[in-house]
Amino acid sequence: MTGRSAIRGAVDHAAFGDLVREHQSMVFSIAQHTLQDREAAEEVAQDVFLRLYRDLDSIESPQHMVHWLRRVTANRCIDAIRRRRWRPVPIDESFPAAEREPEDSLAIRTVRRLMGQLPARQRVVLALRFQEELEIPEIARTLKIPLNTVKSHLRRGVEALRRGMERTGRTES
Amino acid sequence: MNELDPIRRAFARVEPPAGFAARVLERVDREEAVVLQGRWPRRWLRHAVAAGLALAIGLSALAGWNWNRQKRGEAAAAEALIALRIASEKVNLAKQTVHERSAF
Question: Do B16 and A50 lie within an 8 Å CB cutoff?
Fold first, then answer.
């Protein structure tokens, strides 16, 4: 049996629910970190899974599915940011108290706030690098952009976050 | 502490709101219902278009065949007329020769 038919054959309606539960945290987190808006992140994540359901025939293996989910989520987020001049929701609304880690420091909240100000592709590159811990070549393959572009997005994004954290630190002290 | 630590921690995975998977499955169900509703007319439409195309092709072929047959018939009739005219001229010539000889 080929990988392709294995995936399609094994996934009925109930099994698709298990697939969603297995990958929902990855998909939702990429959307949440990129869009900084829980409602918008849920909408994007739902769209991604709906598209996965329609495109299950094209999925060849579990690894391919993860790669596919990251790519489609990233592209949807970039589209969402570009379509409407995205207004990031204040961090305290975006990460409700119940969902926030107790040790959420000022630095973490600063990073999340600054993310909302970066260009769309930079945010996605940062999310794939620091959330998914992907290497640069893998990010380039996922987003289908040149290696040097990924490096440049990553460098500028990290630099912007670092500068923002320094500014916040100075203000606090 | 590594200066990238706050960034890494800020990017820790978060869970979607409760009931997320159920809401995705509801959307899948709604989409499947729409697909099922739309399937019959779409299939019917596909068949109707295919039948229409087949009919149009068949009629065109028949008209072409008829046109060819008519043209061939007209050509044959013209050839027959020429042959008759030639034959008639030959008969007239023969009659004329016979008359001329009998006159002597």
Answer: no
Q: Spell out the alpha helix ranges (H) of chain B.
A: 5-10, 20-103
Taking the Cβ of residue A153 and every Cβ of chain B, the question of whether any pair is shorter than 8 Å is answered with no
CATH of A3-167, one of 3.30.70.2190, 1.10.10.10, 3.40.50.2300, 1.20.140.160: 1.20.140.160
Chain-centre distance for alpha carbon A109: 17
Domain boundaries, chain A: 3-167
Q: Which value does ipTM take for this structure? A: 0.78
Q: Do A112 and B10 touch (CB under 8 A)?
A: yes
For residue B49 the two structure tokens come to 């278009």
The verdict on pTM exceeding 0.80 is: no
Q: Which residues of A touch B1 (CB under 8 A)?
A: none
Percent of chain B with pLDDT over 90: 65
Whether B14 and A107 lie within 8 Å, measured CB to CB: no
